[in-house]
Design brief:
By secondary structure, the protein is an alpha/beta fold. Helix content is about 30%, strand content about 15%.
């Protein structure tokens, strides 16, 4: 079996190979550019392509049977460039570190941890000790979750363990695990925003969710609330968010996802047209909330299992597009 690892996936060839108990051949390639003819030829030599991105190409690929996305997001996949008989699967496993990042962000904000550390002064210990400033707890606070999928549920589970109240917005009112105190439909989004101390964006980017948080929604948030985005930047109006932070209309934001990413065409592109990094109330990280050793191990074990299932003619896991079942990418 021939396996093509594209882009970042190419860094994990040895790991994946060690997890496959049958004869295979692994090749690697950079992420293709739009219309890349040479990439089509390379993909047509593979049985399986492992890639986070599959852009519009000069012609559809013809041969490979499985596009295994080594992540959850599907907005980088152009289904029209896939072979007609190809199946697409994704993989999660990122909910654990992302949920930990969100809890870290809330605790970091509530405790004013950086201020506590700066206040410690062995040379003036008496003033340092006697001048301690009260800080907040996340216990008893309200967390608003936009989305209750894999990530939202993992966040809600941990937030409840800290004694937080959970208010979720999602299309379905289903909450079989009882993780949310309140589940609201999307048309009541501003109601959730207005009562939340922390607002977490945890739903996929779609035509419906793109730009879902704009100036009106940010105005609905409390001036003391914190926004945490670990999903996709485009769900929040870029300029509206910058102005809300600059003018202290909301207290702060933890931003791990961005409006632009490096590509072969623009390797030095800026993450945003707005200078979020200059704002003292914006904590900016480079899309690294999920990037842990545990994530990589779990994801590639899943990828290896799906490739093995394909070889053995067994049902694939996390099927998101299969022509034979008339299923299609929805994220």
């Amino acid at each position: 079996m021939k396996i093509l690892l594209v882009g970042e996936a190419a860094n994990h060839g040895a790991r994946l190979s060690s997890m496959l108990a049958f004869e295979h051949e692994i090749t690697t390639a950079p992420v293709p550019a739009l219309g890349d003819e040479s990439f089509v030829e390379l993909a047509d030599e593979a049985d399986v392509v492992v890639s986070l991105r599959f852009p519009r190409l000069s012609r559809p690929a013809q041969r490979f049977r499985l596009l295994q996305v080594p992540g959850a997001g599907l907005d980088g996949i152009d289904v029209h460039s896939l072979p007609q008989g190809a199946t697409v699967c994704n993989v999660f496993e990122h909910e654990i570190p992302i949920a930990e990042y969100v809890l870290m962000a809330m605790i970091h904000s509530a405790s004013a941890f950086d201020d506590m550390r700066r206040a410690f002064s062995p040379g003036n210990w008496s003033a340092s000790y006697r001048g301690r400033v009260l800080h907040r707890e996340i216990h008893g606070q309200t967390i608003g979750l936009l989305g209750m999928g894999h990530i939202g549920r993992a966040i809600a589970q941990r937030a409840r363990a800290f004694g937080m109240r959970v208010v979720a917005v999602q299309r379905s009112a289903a909450d079989p695990q009882g993780l949310a105190d309140v589940v609201l439909p999307p048309e009541r989004l501003t109601e959730m925003l207005g009562q939340s101390d922390y607002v977490v964006i945890a739903c996929p980017l779609t035509d419906v969710t793109r730009g879902m948080i704009g100036e009106a929604e940010l105005n609905a948030m409390s001036a003391s609330s914190i926004l945490i985005n670990i999903s996709r930047a485009e769900m929040i109006g870029e300029r509206a968010l910058y102005q809300a932070l600059l003018n202290r209309e909301i207290a702060g934001a933890y931003l791990d996802v961005w409006y632009c990413y490096p590509s072969a065409a623009e390797p030095d592109v800026a993450p945003s047209t707005m200078p979020f990094h200059t704002l003292p109330n914006a904590i900016c990280t480079p899309h690294s909330s999920a990037w842990t050793h545990g994530l990589i191990e779990r994801r590639y074990r899943f990828v290896a299992d799906n490739i093995t299932r394909l070889r053995n003619g067994e049902p694939l896991r996390n099927l998101v597009h299969s022509p034979s079942h008339q299923e299609t990418i929805s994220q």
